[in-house]
């Protein structure tokens, strides 16, 4: 008999990596324009290399890495006794670009599916993917990015029948 186990965690981000990179480029352009404008008026302008270092340092502080710092929650996928379900954890604070200190809280189940003896491992995986697609379209998820890329890569080769106890 299989035991309750966590299969994976799927991260939820404030924005996608592409959008985050665009935000960073826009911010960088704005900072460089402001720096040029400031130095054009200053009687003691900094060398260009020092100005570039100042902008790079400010961006490094303000726009830290996306993978961990932009995470605002996750979906923890569990498997047990022919059941698969996802629990949602979200940041309790209001989500913004400047969010730094996060406290996460369990929100409850976002999906739950049963498996059947006739289903193949691929069928079970496709059913989980359908549930995740449904979750992406729910109201609370609008404007957020659920990153299922790693789950799709790993889940496609998992033996879902054994995980759910359909096979020994």
Q: Roughly how many Å apart are the termini?
A: 8 Å
Order of helices and strands: EHHHEEEHEHH
What's the total count of β strands?
Answer: 5
Radius of gyration: 22 Å
Instruction: Describe the main β-sheet briefly.
Output: 5 strands, antiparallel
The fraction of residues in strands falls at 15-25%
Low-confidence stretches: none
Mean pLDDT: 86
Number of helices: 6
Please state the structural category: alpha+beta
Order of the strands making up the biggest sheet: 4-3-2-1-5
Could you provide a short overview of the structure?
The chain is of the alpha+beta class.
Secondary structure blueprint with pairings:
Layout: E1 5-13, H1 17-41, H2 48-62, H3 66-69, E2 71-80, E3 83-91, E4 104-114, H4 121-136, E5 145-146, H5 149-155, H6 160-163
Antiparallel strand pairs: 1-2, 1-5, 2-3, 3-4
Helix pairs in contact: 1-2
Give a written overview of the molecule.
The chain is α+β, with helices and mostly antiparallel strands. Helices cover 42% and strands 24% of the residues. It has helices at residues 17-41, 48-62, 66-69, 121-136, 149-155, 160-163; strands at 5-13, 71-80, 83-91, 104-114, 145-146. Helix 1 (17-41) packs antiparallel against helix 2 (48-62). The mean pLDDT is 86.
């Amino acid at each position: 008999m299989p035991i309750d186990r966590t299969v994976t965690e799927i991260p939820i981000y404030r924005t996608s990596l592409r959008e985050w990179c665009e935000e960073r480029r826009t911010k960088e352009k704005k900072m460089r324009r402001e720096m040029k404008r400031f130095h054009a008026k200053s009687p003691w302008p900094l060398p260009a290399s020092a100005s570039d270092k100042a902008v790079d340092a400010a961006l490094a502080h303000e726009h830290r890495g996306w993978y961990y710092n932009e995470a605002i929650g996750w979906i923890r996928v569990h498997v047990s006794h022919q059941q698969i379900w996802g629990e949602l954890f979200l940041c309790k604070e209001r989500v913004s670009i400047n969010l730094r200190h996060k406290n996460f809280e369990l929100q409850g189940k976002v999906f739950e599916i049963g498996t059947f003896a006739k289903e193949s491992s691929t069928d079970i995986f496709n059913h989980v993917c359908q549930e995740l697609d449904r979750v992406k379209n729910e109201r609370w998820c609008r404007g957020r990015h659920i990153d299922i890329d790693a789950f799709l890569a790993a889940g496609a080769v998992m033996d879902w029948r054994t995980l759910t106890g359909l096979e020994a």
